[in-house]
Design brief:
mainly alpha; Methane Monooxygenase Hydroxylase, Chain G, domain 1; two-stranded antiparallel sheet; 4 helices; about 75% helix; elongated
Length: about 170
């Protein structure tokens, strides 16, 4: 039993080190989402391409980190004689000595905070990209299909005026 307790504490230490990397990755992701939105708004295609390449390269290297975390969780599940889905930070916090509980609780709180923040930033980015797609779709419809849309146009006084029945661009050859 004593060897198992030491083994568990060693695995928890490894897991906490990996969680530090998870926290760093989440902070980078927040930064990337902010930068992505700024580059989309500025329409800076070259820097946007570079950012997307950086994100793709980082996600490939982060995959090994995720595999390592799952391996440690499996080891902890075996040592605790429970299922993999039951190996949570809350459960580890409950079985660890007092001096380690604070460390686990701190990591858990930081991960929750970053997760909430990341969800919000992701939603903001998704909404921006959705609005850009909608705007581009409308713009293309107005350029190529103006006469068929039944569009209502307003003058500077706010009153309606009849739109033209011809498309802005004629696609007939």
């Amino acid at each position: 039993m004593k060897a198992t307790a030491v083994e568990i504490e060693d695995k928890v230490d490894e897991l906490l080190a990996l969680l530090d990397r998870d926290i760093e990755h989440m902070q980078k992701s927040l930064s990337w989402l902010n930068e992505l939105r700024a580059l989309v708004v500025k329409r800076n295609d070259s820097d946007l391409g570079k950012l997307l390449e950086t994100i793709h390269a980082e996600s490939d290297s982060y995959e090994n980190h995720e595999l390592r975390r799952e391996s440690i969780r499996k080891d902890l599940a075996n040592a605790l004689d429970c299922g993999l889905e039951q190996v949570t930070l809350s459960r580890l916090e409950a079985i660890l000595p007092e001096e380690r509980k604070a460390n686990v609780a701190g990591k858990k709180a930081e991960l929750r905070r970053l997760t909430r923040e990341l969800k919000g930033e992701h939603l903001s980015t998704a909404m921006l990209l959705s609005d850009c797609a909608r705007f581009n779709r409308r713009l293309l419809q107005s350029v190529f299909d103006l006469g068929k849309m039944g569009m209502v146009c307003y003058d500077s006084k706010g009153s309606t005026q009849g739109g033209t029945t011809e498309a802005f661009v004629n696609l007939q050859f």
